[in-house]
Model the fold of this input.
Amino acid sequence: MPLTSDDLLARLRQLGVPYELHEHPPVLTVDAMMSVCGEIPGAHTKNLFLRDGKKTYFLVTLRHDAQVDLKRFRSVLGARGGLSFASPEALLERLGVESGAVSPLAALNAGPQTVEIFIQDLLLHERVINVHPLASTRTLGIAPGNLLTALRADRHVPKSFALSDYEEAEALTS
Done:
């Protein structure tokens, strides 16, 4: 049974991971999030749950305003075959959340090494990043190092990437 948002918060407290919780109306898109949560201090994020042609799943966290072309972005992730958004069913089955509640913390509902986690390098240099704690009605402000601690405690190994890697891949294919 997947963790609920309250279960996740309890786990973070158990790990001694500090966070700041913000409650708000449901937000299902980045635009809606920014209109409701834009005043919350810290870097805002968007999250993509993707799969490649070999059914490898990728959970990608980027700055809220980052733009990527999936066709060219696959080389950054090491995806094989085409790269596309995973289905809502796969999102619920693999990460235990619905669209709008995706965040790197959703990986805590996945078995280790069943989903590859990627976090944009710029986010790792922020003082606080804002992610959903498994619910689109909450935003969690957390230090990047503490986010990594929570993921690693559950045997997940997030990888960082730079959008410059993507831009270099784009230049090679142009």
